[in-house]
Amino acid sequence: MPEEGLADAFGVTEEARAKINLALHVTGQRLDGYHLLDMLVTFAEHGDRLGFLPAQADAFTLSGRFGGALAEDGGTNLVLRARDLLRETVGALAFPVHIHLQKNLPIASGIGGGSADAAATLRGLMRLWGTRLPEDALAMLALKLGADVPMCMESRPLIARGIGEKIEPVPDLPAFAMVLANPLKGVSTPEVFRRLATKDNPALSLAPRVPNTADWLAAIDAARNDLEPPARELVAEISAISAMLQASGALLTRMSGSGATCFGIFATMTAAEDAAAALHDARPDWYFQATETVSGGM
After folding, report:
1. Is 298 inside any structural domain?
2. How buried is 252 (Cβ within 10 angstroms: 0-12 exposed, 13-18 middle, 19+ buried)?
3. Domains held by the chain: number
4. Can you tell me the distance from the alpha carbon of 261 to that of 200, in angstroms, rounded to the nearest whole number?
5. What is the rounded distance in angstroms from the CA atom of residue 173 to the CA atom of residue 262?
6. Bridge pairing between strands 252-255 and 158-161
7. Paired strand residues for 135
8. Are 161 and 182 found together in one domain?
9. Which of 16, 130, 231, 246 could make an SS bond with 120 (beta carbons 3.0 to 4.6 A apart)?
10. Annotated binding site for ATP
11. Are residues 22 and 138 in the same domain?
12. Distance CA 55, CA 58 (A)
């Protein structure tokens, strides 16, 4: 279903923006096994889209480049879990709903697609059902769905600490022209963490705030993604795709999350679009998407 078709067919629509880990430092591990992280996160204009419509009975449909892969993977449950959890919370206000997910992002790719879909489901259904939750209650509900969902509820630049639940906005982070790149090969997040040699790495430090894009790029370049080395051991294509981004003129490249999506930051959107087109021509079987991230002052 084209994007304009989704807007025409459904009364309420929500963007589920791709979540980009500009930096990810693993700083420790809790007794329950959860890893402690420091992350600088931003969100891309490109992502999945969801539509919501009153219905006689609950329904869920899929479209988009990766809709078929999601259906085969059985990964639709996070949207449905978000619907069911919110319904339990708001009770009689929650009439049946048809939810349509336009799946434009690769699944299990380190850019928060499923978490962004869950967050967009919560936002869209609260609009459709005409209800609001207290901020603390909504944050707790989001966290039940996954550690990344509270961040995706914000969908704006932030620093996240702990397991992702301690969120601090970053209002001065600029927008970046970017290419997202993924070889469409899965990488196991548990296996990436298992291969991580050191789990008490130095924390993320960005203070004092840097004032302009060049300084931000230098600060991001001085940070790191501690999960990238073990992910490269598991999926050799991550090294190849990062090298392709660099050769295409990216000012900075890095893997996002636990992979396998990498990003390249470019000087302009024109440069990003040209690079994405050339990379797609070279490897049409891989995923390349030019986009712009949102600014902290959105």
Report:
1. no
2. middle
3. 2
4. 24
5. 20
6. unpaired
7. none
8. no
9. 16
10. 106-116
11. yes
12. 6
Tell me the C-alpha to C-alpha distance, in Å, between residue 227 and each of 18, 118, 148: 18, 24, 16
- H or E element: which one contains 263? strand 262-266
Q: What share of the chain is helix, strand, coil (3-state, %, to 5)?
A: 40, 25, 35
pLDDT digits (tens, 9 = 90+) for 60-91: 999 999 998 887 765 558 999 999 999 999 99
Domain end call among 169, 195, 211: 169
**Token representation of residue 225:** 């993604």
Report the run of H or E that residue 70 belongs to, with start and end: helix 67-73
- Give the three-state DSSP class for 10: coil
* Residues 141 and 24 reside in one and the same domain: yes
The domain boundary residue, chosen from 169, 196, 220 = 169
Query: What distance separates the 2 farthest-apart alpha carbons in the chain?
Result: 56
What amino acid is encoded at 88 in this protein? E
Per the listing, tokens 């978490």 go with 115
pLDDT in tens, 112-137: 889 999 999 999 999 999 999 999 99
Which residue segment(s) compose the domain that 97 sits in?
3-169
* CATH number of the domain bearing residue 119: 3.30.230.10
What's the one-letter identity of residue 191?
Answer: E
Angle at 203 between CA 208 and CA 23, to 5 degrees: 80
Q: Residues with catalytic annotation? A: 19, 148
- Is this prediction's pTM over 0.90? yes
Tokens of 183: 């070889």
Q: Looking at the domain assignment, is residue 60 inside a domain?
A: yes
CA–CA dist 173, 241 (Å, integer): 26
For residue 18, CA distances in Å to 95, 110, 168, 169 come to 29, 9, 19, 17
